[in-house]
Amino acid sequence: MKLSNATLTDLPSSVRVPTYDRSKLTPGIVHIGLGNFHRAHQAWYLHRLFELGLNPDWAIVGAGVRPYDETQRLKMKAQDYLTTLIELDPSGKSAEVSGSMIDYVPVVEGNGLLIERMADPAIRIVALTVTEGGYYIDPATKGFAADHPDIVHDAANPETPRTAFGAIVAALRLRRDRGIGPFTGLCCDNLLGNGLVLRQTVLSLARLSDPVLAEWIDTHCTFPNSMVDCIVPATGPKELALAREFGVDDAVPVTHENFRQWVIEDNFCAGRPDWDRAGATFSDRVHDFEVMKIRILNGGHQVISDVGEVLGIETISGCMEHPQVRALFRKVELEEIVPHVQPVPGFTPGEYVKLIDRRFSNTAIADTTRRVAFDGSSRHPGFVVPSIRDGLKAGTPVEGLALVSAAWARYCVGVRENGTVVEPNDPLWADLTDKAKAAKDDPRVWLEMRSFYGDLADEPRFADAFVRWLSLIHVKGMEAALDAYLAE
């Protein structure tokens, strides 16, 4: 059955469908970056609120600024912006249709339609999931990358911006000039202090073209920090077929695990939905939740994904079935990451590791090592390097984290140990591959990428271990290096 408003009542009874009247929903949020994660996570929380009869004036308008986003928009428009969510768990699978998104802004050059939509008084939150590497952060200084070509363009052409952030600045200018008032900018990407990062990007860009507007934004807009968590694989032929098994013809279904968490700082300048009524947590300890999740889950993903890719293991659950890789995960987590993580309400760091172990081991989730290893140039500096620095400062072990960094360097050579070629998997893939090949003969070349590692090349306890592990991997292979580490 082709998914649409008209066919909802005709779908198989095994598929849960919205019980609310979608025609009575009105928009309150523009969300930029309508990937799988958003639809399985933030959009689901709103969907649940609508199921409770709450907040019908907070429906989502999708948006994007890249050509891919227009392709996505057309697919979703053809099915009235509905999404089939398929929960995958070892105990079974289930499907429901989410209806919290009601429109999608056409993607046009200059982003004029997006700017006008965000300037609509009904829009009170602009949210984003544009990946960790999408915020124009200088990797060396962690400050704003003002010299990036996209930013240079938007500063010179503020009315026809290229980036989502340029569009946000332009929309806020219209709102100020029209007396509409501000909106909240809500980052939903895996960045420590993600609200602060979004604030930095928006304000820094605004200052380049209109310092007075930047001051208005700084005074009136809010950018709450948040922590988001749900494992959501990419959609491919298997997922499309799985939706059809449930009797639904959905061009863009989403699979996800049986776990969600959303912790949000309650700092919204123009109101917000009652997300806590659907299971989200409002807290003034978002930072602690962020650190736990980013270090243990996101960092844990990096611990095993590059190793898995080099060994030719296709999925994260497959990595956890591999005795050495699972042992690597547990040893690095408990000895080198957990000591630097504070407990949060509901979890000690050790308990959280056990939870992540179970989630990564979910064989029903076909989460690929390739997806998790993507954009290592953003993820390793963000998820792994902070634990290395904490370990060096505290005098705790960093041998395993050095091995993880060496595995990333080996992965970026671009050929797995079974001889298969790794297709480019990072925005900086060409440069990384050049460095990785040079590091085969001189491992320290890799650590000299100071935009990622800073001064870690000058820290003997880490750098010497990295050199030893990468040399061993190249000479004897990944499993030999794992055995050597696990024997320590």
Write structural notes for this entry:
GO terms for molecular function: oxidoreductase activity, acting on the CH-OH group of donors, NAD or NADP as acceptor. Residues 28-276 form the Mannitol dehydrogenase N-terminal domain. This is Mannitol dehydrogenase family protein. It holds the Pfam family Mannitol_dh. It contains 21 helices and twelve strands. The protein is globular, with a radius of gyration of 23 Å. It folds into two domains: 5-284, NAD(P)-binding Rossmann-like Domain (Rossmann fold); 287-486, Orthogonal Bundle (N-(1-d-carboxylethyl)-l-norvaline Dehydrogenase, domain 2). The strands form three sheets. Strands 6-3-2-7-8 form a five-stranded parallel sheet, with helices on both faces. A four-stranded mixed sheet has the order 1-5-4-10. A three-stranded mixed sheet has the order 9-11-12, with helices on one face. With 488 residues, the chain is an alpha/beta fold. 47% of the residues lie in helices and 11% in strands. A hairpin with a 2-residue loop joins strand 4 (83-89) and strand 5 (92-98). The mean pLDDT is 96.
